[in-house]
Structure formats: C-alpha cells, structure tokens
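Task: complex structure prediction.
Instruction: return structure tokens for all chains below.
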Amino acid sequence: MTMLWDKPEISRREFFEKCAEAGAKSFIFGGLVVTTANLLLAQDTQDTRARAEEAPVKGTKGPIYGFVVDTTKCIGCGSCVRACRDENNVPDGFSRTWVEQYTFFPNGEVIVNSPNGGADGFGEDLPNRNMPEELGQLPVRGFFVPKLCNHCINTPCIQVCPVGASYVTKEGVVLVDQERCIGCGYCVQACPFGSRYINPQTNTADKCTWCYHRITKGMLPACVQACPAKARIFGNVSDPNSEISQILANNRVQVLKSYLGTNPRTRYIGLDSEVI
Amino acid sequence: VHHYVTQGYVLPNQMHIYWTMMIVLYPYITGIVAGAFIISSLHHVFDRDELKPVSRFAMLMALAFLLCAPLPLLVHLGHPERALNIMFTPNVTSAMAGFGFIYSIYLLILTVEIWLLYRVDIVFLSSNARSEMMRRLYWILALGVTDISEEAKALDRKVMLFLAAIGVPAACFLHGYVGFLFGAIKANPWWASPLMPVIFLLSAIVSGIAMVLVCYLIVQWFNKRPVDSECTQSLMESAWYFLMVDVALEGLELLNRAYMANHEWEIMKHLIVDKLFVSLFVVQFLIGSVVPFVLLGTAVVFKNRFSAGVRSVMGFVSGFLLLVQVFAMRWNVVMGGQMFSKSFRGFLNFHVDIVGREGLLAVLFIFTLPFVAMLIFSRVLPLWGPISTFPTRWLRDRPSEHVPLGSFTKFK
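Output:
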C-alpha cells in the first residue's frame, strides 16, 4: 500500500489539498465531538454541586439570600401577586410572581389554572371553566402553588445572555441590567420556569428581583410581606440562626425541575409531583 | 405584543410568542449561505467541474444572503441600537455572543475570496467598462492592485485555496452554530437535542443547493439560454443525497424521542399531532421531502429515460419544494418550540401578522433583499462564468479579445 510519505515527491498543490481536506474533516468532526461532550457533561452533575446555602458567591461575607415557599400554607388569596405588581410596576399581562391552583379529579385528571396570575384570588368556585364535561365529578383534592423566579445558582438565563446584561449579585440574586439588555429574548427561552418576560414598556427582559431594592435596605420582598399565611419565607441562608435557615434545617425541601440541574435558590415545602 | 389563543394551562409569562417569523427567517437565510458556499466549494476546492456554470454565482449568492442575514435579527431585537454590544461586551458563555464573531470572520473570508476570484476581471473592467463611473468603481474595487501577471495570479490562487479550506468549515460552523442556539436550550424539550446542529447544517446544505438550482434554471429560462444539464444533474444528485441524510436524521430524532417517551413526550406528542400536523407531516415531510425524494431519485436513477428538459423541470419542482421544506423545518423548530408552555400543560397558537415590524410583509421584504443584492452584483460582475459572459453592452470592446487577460473561474 502506497502511503503519502512513500511518494518520492508531493507537489505543493497536493499538499494544500490534503491539508484542506483533512482540516475540514477534523474541524467538523471535532466540533461535533465537543458539542456532544458538552451536552453530556452538562447533565447529571447535580450531585457534585454545592447546595444553595453552602454556595456563597466567591469572596464575599455578606448575606446569601434564599426563599422558601411552603405550599401547604398557601390559601390562594393572591395578595402576593397584587403586592408585587404594585411594588414593581409589572406591566399588564405579565407576572413576576403568580399562584397556580391544582385540582385533582377521581379519574386522575389534573386541572391547573392561574387566572390573571392568581392576582384576584380564586374565589369559592371550583375550576369549572376548564373542567372537561366528562369529568363531571367533584375534585378529590387540591392546593395552591406560588411561583416566582428561582434565582438559580447554575442559571441558564445568565449563561445565554449574549451581552452580559443578566448577572448575579453578591447576595445570589439574579438581575437584569435594563441599560445593557438588547431585548433578544434568549433568556426568556432559556428559563425553564417561565419566570422571565420581555417588558413591552422597556423592550428589555424583566423578572422577579426578590425586590432587590427592598432587601438591600433590610426590608422583606413585597410578596413575603403581603402573605397572610406565611407561605413565603425569605432570609439570609448564610446565617444559621435566621428563620429561613431553621426552616431549611427542619424540613424536607424540593426544587422545581431538579432534573435540569439549575440548582434553584427558591425551594419548596410540600411540592406535589404534578407540579412542574 | 399579542395575546395568543391558548388551551390548557399556559404559564402567565408565556401568553406571547416572543420569537416571531424573523427568527424563522434568520436560520433560513444563513442556511442558504452555507449551502451555496459549499456548492461553490465543490467546484473550487473539490474539483467538481460539472458545477462550473454555477460556481461563481453560488459564491456571490452566499455573499448576498450573508449580507442580509443579520437583518431579521436586528428587526427582532428590542434594542437594535445596542446590537453591537454582542461584540463590545460579549458574554463568553453565551452561544449567541458568538454570532458577531463567527459572522464577521465568515464575511471576511467570503469577501476576500470573492475579491480574489474576480480580481483579474475587476482589473480588466477598470479600463474596459463602458461608462466612466463604472471604470472608477472597478478602479476602487481593485484596491490599487493592478498586477495581473502569471505570478500574481498564481499567488491569488494559493491564497484562495487556503481561504476556501477555512471557508468550508467556517460555513459549516456558521450554520451548525445556529442549530446549537436551539439545541443547547435545555428548558425546551422540543429544541434540546445534540442532533440539532447536525440537522440544521444538513438542511442548510439542502436549501443552498435548491436555491442555486432554482435560480440557475429561472435565469437560464428567462434569458432563453441553454441549461447545462450536467450541472443541473450534479446539483440534483447532491440535493438528493443531502435530502436523504437530512430527512433520515430528522426522522430518527423524532422516533428516538417517541420511543424514549420521557415525561416531556406527552406534550410533544400533542404538539406534533395537534399543532404541527400540517406544517410538519404534510408540508415538511410529505410535500417537502417525499415528493422531491421521488422526483430527484427518478431523475438520478432513471437519468437516461428522461430528456434533459424534463429533468430540468423535475429539478425545478423539487428545488422549489425543498426550499419550502427547509422553511417549514425552521418554522416547526422555532414556532413548535414556542407553541407549548413550559408548564407542559398548555398550548398557544401563533398569529401571523401581515403588517407590523415583524409581520409577513416585513419578512417578505427582507427575503427579497438578497435577490436585489444579486441583481446588483450581476450588473457589476460576471455571475455565470468568465468575463466573456459579461454583457457586451456594458463594455467598451468585445470582451473576447481580452479573454486571455482574465478568464479563470477556477483557482487551481
């Protein structure tokens, strides 16, 4: 078999041709390998990641904030949603926080709704607006789930922002720089929880800030303050004596879509498997 | 911002489809760039001589579409005036931040390559164009380099071969990268797939070949010039081949998802059966893939049973259908991924605007711009072969006398 190096002479043209061919092939192949490897590595690494309260932002000794939603306490009054809209001037048709109502029927059907983000409460009527006629039976159980930005540690929204307008503060809060955001909407697509939206007034990405303007002055987020049932707990998780640290120490908590490995700082008590 | 018709439970912030038809158009345009460039390179680098009649045209088509590729993005941005921030303050972990750099590098490679390809023609035209204004334009385009000696041409060819060697992977990267933009979004099960860049790239090549084929046939028929059937046959063979691999991968990807039946499959099943049935099964698969597959396959396998004219018509019809197919594929990816809520419990309908910044008319307007650009190119440079094919009405003398000066279309 005649190999390339067995040839007495190789013309420059041949050399460049071979180089070009080999270069093109290895470039494409290499690209595919790297892409695949990245995607594989991006999964199933959650176990090795630090838990939220043990992962302070590097080089700081200040508070690291956390949020706990106790779904067993939520009464679906919608005070939190109204308080948030008033506090943060949230545009109509969007919600930085919202409340979902889950209703379970004997045949296994689950109906979820959140009219106006739950801002007006849910009244005493069962969710018959969407109820399929064939169900025709009374629900067997139900509950409310308040939702908001999860302020993930491995946050996909910051990862994809092309200009670095999405960032994390030293307290672990995920924010958007309205002056820098180009309004591409990539972060809205990348957020698995539907926490982000494009604000039609500013044409930039917008989201829950945990009321950063309040918490940095020692106040509570508006939704936490407005909740009459203490279903929302906010505080400094780096202080072991804080209320939230005590709650985290004494409860079994879950996060939303844990399989995605975003490692949220917002955690839930009493999350049902139907809650996605 | 529209409120779309929804069914089931849609998360409150997902009542809108944020990525509109502009984001369908963007990968469609870059796909044609990649495909056209690869066709041109098949001739210039890989010695496919039968593609000579379209090799220059394909190269300029790549440039025309590339120049228009950022337009849909700019129109879509909430703050287009901040667009250059993706190059000034890029976020290194963002795939999208790569766009500015990948685009610029590719634009540079393509422009330099085209300049070298046409340099001798430009020098010739700078003294032989009919109007004074055009001679000045060519003088500017020559960038002061008027050396057309054999040594200079030999050097041009070397540089061009080198650029083409980078250009092919760059074209693949430009479009594979567009697939990555979607494939790497784990929040969206309809997008998240390592196969996405590969599928995008293959369908890009299909659309580029189809666009070159369709445009070539239209121009030849319109100008009542003979169609080079070896060239169209070769284009049809390539289109057939890439179509088979492309559709096989797309089908396997869907089959794999269905077979694994993860918990997201429940919503995706409804998505493809209820929401995307027409655009996915009817348009993309049946009309856009099966029909061209049969037509192209017949024209390739039973080549001798059909006259060249009949095969040209088959090529034109399949080329057009392939262009529809690839557009439908982009549509199904971009829109399909936004037609279900991340609650995995509800759906949205996309409402096509006619007017408006991101409406149908704006999309059509942007899509005609590459063709306008090609029309301008055709006025300045010979698109269909050596300088001898350039219309004589724009020259001082008959060009045939000057052919020895600069008549290479191939740079090796």
